[in-house]
Amino acid sequence: MMRIRDLSNQELADRLAQGLDLQTGPFIFHIQSREAPVFSGLRRLYADFPVSKEALRDFHVRVRRPANLRRWYHPQVVFEHDRASPFKPLPANHAFASLEWGMNWCIAGYAHQYLTLHAAVLERNGRAVMLPGEPGAGKSTLTAALSLSGWRLLTDETALVDLDTGVLWPMARPINLKNHSIDIIQAFSSEAIFGDKAFDTHKGTVAHLKPSLDTVLRMDESCRIGWVIFPRWQANSPARLTRRPRADTFVFAAENSFNYSVLGETGFRTLDRLIREADCYDFRYSKLEDAVLAFERLST
Amino acid sequence: MSTPAVPETRSWRIAPAGQLLTAEFDGQTVVYHTGAGHTHWVSPVAAEVLNCLNRSIQDEAGLYAALSELVSQEDMPMLAGSLRETLDHLKNLSLIEPA
Amino acid sequence: MNAAFQRLLTALHQPETMTSLTEREWDALLRHSRSASLLSRLALDVQTCQGWDALPLRVRQHMRAATFVAERQIRAVRWEVHKMHEALGHLDIPIVLLKGAAYVMDDLPPARGRLFGDIDLLVPRDRLGDVEMQLRLHGWHGTHHDAYDQRYYRQWMHEIPPVTHITRGSTLDVHHNILPLTARLKPQASDLLAALHPIAGYSNLYRLGNADLILHSATHLFHEGEWAHALRDLVDLDTLLRHFASKPGFLKALHARAETLGLQKPLQYALQSTQALLLTPLPELDLTAPSNKSANVLINRPFVHGFASAHRDLSGPGSDLALFALYIRSHWLRMPMHLLLPHLLHKALARSKTGKE
Question: How many angstroms separate the CA atoms of C350 and C357, rounded?
Answer without folding.
Answer: 11
